[in-house]
Amino acid sequence: MAERSAARPPHACRVRIEPVGARNRRASEPATAQVPGRVVLANGAFRTVRPVIGESWRRCRAAEVDTRLEGAPVVFDARTVADLRAVHPLGPHLDTLRAVLDPAEHLFVVTDASGHALWRDGPSDALREADRVGLLEGACWAEGSVGTNGIGTTLATGRPQFVYSTEHLALVLHRWSGAGAPVTDPDTGEIVGCVDVAATVRRLPSAAASLVTAAARLAEARLELDVARRDERLRERYARHAGKAGILLTATGRVLAGGPADWRGRRLDAPMPLPGDLLTLPDGSRALAEPLGEVFLLRPQSAGASGGFAGVQRAAPPSLTLSLLGAARPSARLDARRLPLSLRHAEILALLAMHPGGLSGDRLTAYLYGDEGSPVTVRAEIHRLRDRLGGMVRAKPYRIGCRVEADFLVVRRLLDEGDVATAARLFHGELLPSSDSPAIRAERDELTGRIRRQLLDRDDAEALWRFAQSDPGRGDLEVHERLVQILPPDDPRRITAAARCYPP
């Protein structure tokens, strides 16, 4: 908790508070940290603040946060908040957090990683006070939206923070104090949200900072159990594919199975694998990464290499990975290099991925344009595409001259294998939804229709819910009616599905 003593804390920074109109400092003035010129405090022109607050004020000044704002902006409506809650990893552990933080005593808020408030609870008088400053579901409490505060500053620093009264940048928050702690995903190492308690200055307990930190650590322990359960499910599903020599790797780079016993759970010091990556394992040996549904299968390529840290080298030839499902901005990865694609280039690469044996100029033209196309136009597009991908696009016939994988092909294979749950997880939307190419439209309609039909024929509520969040599923009445039938009565997603079936 912040010290309220008048004495300057050790290592505190001195912040110059300037009145309106004094934002342009003279060159002869000392280099001091400035806050926006509209900030005027009652204790004079200079004030000592803790370093973490001074740094936060600097960030807020760079973001041009208005200190006279009336409250946090509400950026999500109730329906969007419900959708975000349904997929947020902290949702299943909300009761645990409530039990630790006791919202009967003070305001309790849980946000996502961007500072959007998804849940809040507390005494009725505290909720009314919170409404006045926008501390409610759907509001954004990032520093760039509302200035220094217990949520935004916690997420900006990645550490627990307590922000007391006038340490808030926005004047309207000077009656408040808040303590927040970040929650980190044990699988990816990324922050997934913030747990925060807040109250008017006189009501927040001195132990609030320790309390939210303990709650966040407890949430991380529960998430670690979730990861362990998910890992076990993946092992049961894919271990038989590894055989005696293969190693299973999660998409986040953790060893699931295979290799020495002490490798399990370790994360390779490498970026997320791509098909065709040649990974260096902890013992110095190397293994080729092959996609296998939700995981990667590492096939050892050599043995006996010595030492070295786990890393990644590129296999030859290079690999091309296409991301085209639900893509407003389709892209490719050529090895580790990301390449944004125009719609036409994405269509060409999708068609060539669908036909690995190659296509003649006339056939590719017909697939792209129908009867109205010209092979001359296709040749020009291929020429431009080869400028971007080098020799990866070959001619006579047109084909991709390297290892290629595409997200829509992975989903199609999973459906062929009957693994509908994994297909639903990887289905991020329709194939190139803005494409008018006859062949792309046909593939798009077939793929969406297949996954929809197979999901409706099963009682897998989780997979069907994932599909319902995609563009083709969001407005599908039959999908939401089916969710109402199979979701438990106390599942909040059932309420969302029913609302979509019977809008007010």
Concise synopsis of the structure shown:
This protein is α+β, with helices and mostly antiparallel strands and 504 residues long. The chain has helices at residues 51-62, 78-87, 94-101, 124-132, 143-146, 152-157, 208-242, 343-354, 361-369, 375-389, 407-417, 420-426, 438-456, 461-468, 471-474, 477-486, 492-501, and strands spanning 13-16, 33-34, 46-49, 107-112, 117-121, 161-164, 176-184, 191-200, 247-250, 255-257, 277-280, 286-292, 295-302, 311-314, 319-323, 331-334, 337-340, 393-394, 399-400, 403-406.
Shape: globular
CATH class membership of the largest domain: Alpha Beta
With strands numbered from the N-terminus, the spatial order across the biggest sheet is: 10-9-13-12-11-14
Main pleated sheet? 6 strands, antiparallel
Proportion in helices: 25-40%
Unreliable parts: 1-46, 303-316
So, CATH architecture of the largest domain?
Answer: 2-Layer Sandwich
**Portion in strands:** 15-25%
Mean pLDDT: 80
Instruction: Report the structural category.
Output: alpha+beta
Per DSSP, the total helix count is 17
Number of domains: 4
Distance between the termini: 46 Å
**How many strand elements?**
20
Annotated CATH homologous superfamily of the largest domain: GAF domain
Cα gyration radius (Å): 27 Å
